[in-house]
Design brief:
Distance between the termini: 28 Å
CATH architecture of the domain at 33-115: Orthogonal Bundle
Mean pLDDT: 93
Largest sheet: 3 strands, antiparallel
CATH topology of the domain at 33-115: Arc Repressor Mutant, subunit A
Strand content: 5-15%
Order of helices and strands: HHEHHEEHHH
Number of strands: 3
Low-confidence stretches: none
Number of helices: 7
Strand order of the largest sheet: 1-3-2
Shape: globular
CATH superfamily of the domain at 33-115: Winged helix-like DNA-binding domain superfamily/Winged helix DNA-binding domain
Structural class: mainly alpha
Length: about 150
């Protein structure tokens, strides 16, 4: 006989992850608003900041792969960031089908204003560094496992 507890909302991992994502976004929102960014735009900027200067370029394909976003979702994000003068989009001179993203000076400077965001978000978790690192490892394992199935 099936266990009806399996169908209780509070027993669903997916619901916990969904609720946590919504809550994290609520905590990020006021902090990112000061920078003029949405959470999705912040994720794009994080990838670009990893490349760290105005001479480095990142392909839209690489950005989409890194963020697990398709071009239909990514293009409007990039347009808005370009309107804010945080990045520029240029066609690859060797392959017209490929678009490359490059940080502007303002995009590079925004990194300095964002530098304390991870610490601010860590402080709202109430977790120790070790606990948070352990959770991150578990979530990475879960992601890897589910991607291969």
């Amino acid at each position: 006989m099936p266990n009806n507890d399996n169908l209780k909302l509070e027993n669903q991992l997916c619901f916990r992850l969904y609720s946590l994502t919504k809550l994290m976004n609520r905590h990020y929102s006021p902090v990112l608003k000061q920078l003029g960014l949405t959470y999705s735009q912040y994720l794009v900027m994080l990838v670009l900041w990893e490349h760290n200067n105005t001479r480095s370029v990142v392909s839209v394909k690489h950005l989409g792969d890194k963020l697990d976003l398709d071009s239909g979702t990514l293009s409007p994000l990039l347009k808005r960031l370009e309107k804010q003068d945080l990045l520029s989009r240029v066609r690859n001179s060797n392959d017209e089908r490929s678009v490359e993203i490059k940080l502007t000076q303002a995009g590079c400077q925004l990194k300095a204003q964002a530098i304390n965001i991870p610490a601010q978000m860590f402080s709202v978790t109430g977790m120790s560094i070790d606990d948070l690192q352990g959770l991150t490892t578990q979530l990475d394992t879960l992601l890897t496992t589910m991607k291969t199935r």
